[in-house]
Design goal:
- By secondary structure, this protein is an alpha+beta fold.
- It is built from 14 helices and eleven strands.
- Strands 1, 2, 3, 4, 5, 6, 7, 8, 9, 10 and 11 form an eleven-stranded antiparallel sheet that branches.
- Helix 6 crosses helix 9.
- It is elongated.
- The N and C termini lie far apart (75 Å).
- The C terminus is likely disordered.
Length: 466
């Protein structure tokens, strides 16, 4: 490139560390070399040489749908690298991608701002080679479906599933559509109904997954390994899950990609399946056993109308006739829409769990009030309600289930955080002797002159054994 590179290209390269710049500049020659066959050595190509879509496909084809490869190529062709870049301006797809165009594309996708990424997303979303001033929500949804599908492929092919097994989970293709629709729901279209560059810029700035997924596709698809930017971890680790006994979870990979980032940053422990009606049967007591004493949990419910929804409990559930929890809890829906509903601050009715009481409701609830929960499972397992009209006061959620009174199809409980520390006296250091279980009774016996014959049986303290 030397002195012929444009000012635009020079500024883009300056964003990378000195040791990263040769990697970025070498992508063009490597893609051309790969097109010449596996034995073709990388070489400095003459000015005027361009990349074709076939060359791009040879690098990205195994990780992205053909339609996504075409979108990336179309976006590269739309770039104007500046007048000094060997006379190269934005081109049609037929004339290929120049070296400077590729460098600008890499810099803007891997190190760019929302303002710089917006035109690229516009070009990827539009139909045909003709530049458009706006795209529709439907066009953006199709682009996102291709992008998310590529990210799922990358997770599978690069071995980044974190022990999740997609073949025993929900339908990923449906999850891709739902996640794309959720991301599109964050758009704020112009008065004309379309999405221009300024609309896309605002959207990309607010919805971080757009940049994250695009960066992952470009880095993996074009094999751009940068030391300052390790590959992102999109899925939480999965542990202690009996995959051989499972046929189809309520979770799928795209849904997991959506739900995991909704959890507070401090909840980074591996996810563990602690209850499933398909494994443990339809038992409220068994479910309560899975919920309590295992820390923060994610509850997933499917009703007989096909709706999938649930709630996140920010700490371990306790069986008691009072509300519990705090504002980090939330409710969510998975099907027919992916949505999260966080605390409104109206009240503190975040979590409720009660059993075997005659005067208080028995069951599990989140949000709202007694008899009108945002989410309720009755202790008579199999029934529940979501009475949230117009909205749940605690979480601002609408009706989650297909019908206000619903019948359960299946339930899953996932432990998603560290279990609570054992209380003093339960186990480990500081464990109390059974002889100290009731000190008040011991004092009464001593006052009446009774001899505590069992004191001689007390085990020695650990520090006395030495």
């Amino acid at each position: 490139m030397g002195n012929t590179e444009s000012v635009v290209v020079q500024k883009r390269l300056a964003r990378f560390r000195p040791e990263e710049r040769p990697v970025v500049e070498g992508v063009f020659d490597r893609l051309l070399g790969a097109a010449g066959g596996p034995s073709a050595p990388p070489r400095r190509t003459p000015a005027g040489t361009t990349l074709t879509i076939e060359m791009l496909h040879s690098s990205m084809g195994s990780l992205a749908p053909d339609s996504m490869v075409r979108r990336v190529y179309q976006s590269m062709c739309s770039i104007d690298p500046g007048p000094a870049a060997s006379g190269k301006t934005s081109t049609s797809a037929a004339s290929g991608v120049g070296r400077e165009q590729l460098v600008v594309f890499l810099a803007d996708t891997l190190r760019g701002t929302a303002e710089e990424r917006a035109p690229l997303v516009m070009a990827m979303s539009q139909s045909g080679d003709e530049a458009a001033v706006a795209v529709t929500r439907e066009q953006l949804a199709e682009f996102l479906q291709d992008l998310i599908s590529a990210v799922v492929r990358i997770l599978v092919h690069r071995g980044r599933l974190q022990a999740w097994q997609p073949e025993r989970m929900g339908d990923s293709s449906l999850g891709v559509q739902l996640l794309a629709e959720q991301m599109c729901s964050e758009l704020k279209p112009s008065d004309e109904g379309g999405c221009d560059v300024s609309c896309l810029e605002d959207w990309i700035f607010r919805v971080s997954q757009v940049s994250l997924y695009l960066e992952m596709l470009v880095a993996e698809g074009l094999k751009v390994s940068l030391s300052s930017r390790p590959a992102p971890t999109l899925l939480p680790p999965c542990r202690d899950t009996p995959w051989k006994e499972l046929r189809c979870l309520l979770l799928d990979i795209p849904t997991l990609m959506f739900l995991a980032p909704q959890l507070p940053d401090s909840y980074s422990a591996p996810w563990r399946l602690v209850f499933s009606t398909r494994l443990h049967g339809e038992s409220f007591s068994r479910m309560v056993g899975g919920l309590t004493k295992c820390g923060p949990t994610l509850l997933l419910i499917k009703d007989t109308k096909g709706h999938v929804f649930g709630g996140f409990a920010s700490h371990a559930w306790e069986t008691k006739p009072q509300f519990q929890g705090h504002s980090r809890c939330f409710l969510f829906t998975v099907f027919p829409r992916l949505r999260v509903y966080t605390a409104t601050g109206y009240n503190q009715h975040f979590m409720y769990l009660n059993q075997n009481q005659q005067t208080m409701p028995n069951g599990l609830g989140m949000g709202g009030q007694h008899g009108y929960f945002g989410l309720w499972l009755d202790s008579d397992f199999g029934r529940g309600h979501s009475r949230a009209r117009p909205k749940c006061t605690t979480y601002g959620s609408p009706q989650l289930s297909g019908e206000e009174e619903f019948t359960l199809d299946s339930v899953e409980v996932w432990a998603v955080g560290k279990p609570p520390e054992p209380e003093e006296g339960e186990e480990g250091k500081g464990k109390k002797s059974i002889l100290d279980a009731d000190l008040e009774v011991q004092a009464m016996m001593a006052m009446t002159g009774k001899t505590l014959h069992s004191q001689g049986l007390r085990e020695p303290e650990e520090d006395q054994e030495q």
